[in-house]
Each structure stands twice: as C-alpha cells, then as structure tokens.
Write a structure and sequence with these properties.
The protein is mostly helical and 141 residues long. It has a domain of 90 residues. It is built from six helices and no strands. The protein starts with 25 loop residues before the first helix and ends in a 6-residue tail after the last helix. The model has no long low-confidence stretch (mean pLDDT 81).
C-alpha cells in the first residue's frame, strides 16, 4: 500500500523566521511607539519638500521659483543627513544606508545645482553652459 502524504496547506506561517522586521516597525524599536513617533524623519523631509513646492508654485516675484526649488533640494539633502546620522529612520530607509545616502545626495545636489544655473539670471555662472548652444549647433543671440 502507498503511504499517504499530509495535505499541503496554503496558510501563512504564524511566525516568520530568517527575516528582520522593517526598520521603523515597533518590533525593530523593541518597545511600543506610536506610528508618528517612528516616522518623524520622513514626515519632516516631506514637510520641507512640500513647503518648497508651495513656494515654487505661489511665488509672485522674479526668481521666486528658485527659492522654492532650493528648499526642495535642501529638504532632500536633509533626508540624506538624517539617514546618515540616525539609527532608526522609519520609512526614510529604503535600501542600505550607503545607497539611500548616495541617492539622496545626488538628487538633492542635482536639484540645487540646476536651480543655481537656471535661466533667466542664473545665480551661478558656468562658462561651459554659455557655449553649449553653440556646441549643439544653435546660433548665439
């Protein structure tokens, strides 16, 4: 006679083994914290970025969009600093600390650099950028 195998179940295991809890979870903190307490770094970064976007949209003066975009870039750089210095950052942690910090630094610095050279009346003059139009074949006015 053939031996009967137990039926396989599709239920999830009661306890998962071999994985770590998410960085911002109560289990990772080791004691019960409310969700807003665990997520204050991402909340702070999003508040600064949204404030910068509001300044960009509602600025009614010349170069007003540049001030807003500087705040947006600064908010992203703030996220990089928080990710670098704090052991627990909740949802601000996406990948490894190194990857998160590098990506946030590149994005924040890129936004600030592009804002500084934005036309009209750039705050940072880069001689190479003056000649780029000629390099791609556009006549200089």
């Amino acid at each position: 006679m053939s031996e009967r195998r137990p039926a396989r179940t599709r239920r999830r295991p009661v306890r998962t083994t071999g994985t770590l809890p998410p960085e911002g979870s109560a289990a990772a903190l080791g004691h019960p914290h409310a969700l807003p307490v665990r997520q204050w770094p991402i909340t702070l970064v999003l508040t600064v970025v949204l404030t910068g976007l509001a300044v960009t949209v509602f600025a009614n003066f010349q170069d007003g969009f540049k001030y807003g975009l500087m705040v947006v870039g600064g908010g992203i750089l703030l996220g990089a600093l928080l990710r670098l210095l704090l052991p627990e950052v909740g949802m601000l942690a996406v990948r490894s600390r190194f990857t998160d910090v590098i990506v946030l630094l590149v994005l924040g610095s890129g936004i600030i650099l592009l804002t500084l050279v934005a036309q009209p009346n750039p705050w940072l003059e880069v001689p190479l950028l003056d000649n780029i139009g000629q390099l791609i074949g556009r006549p200089r006015h």
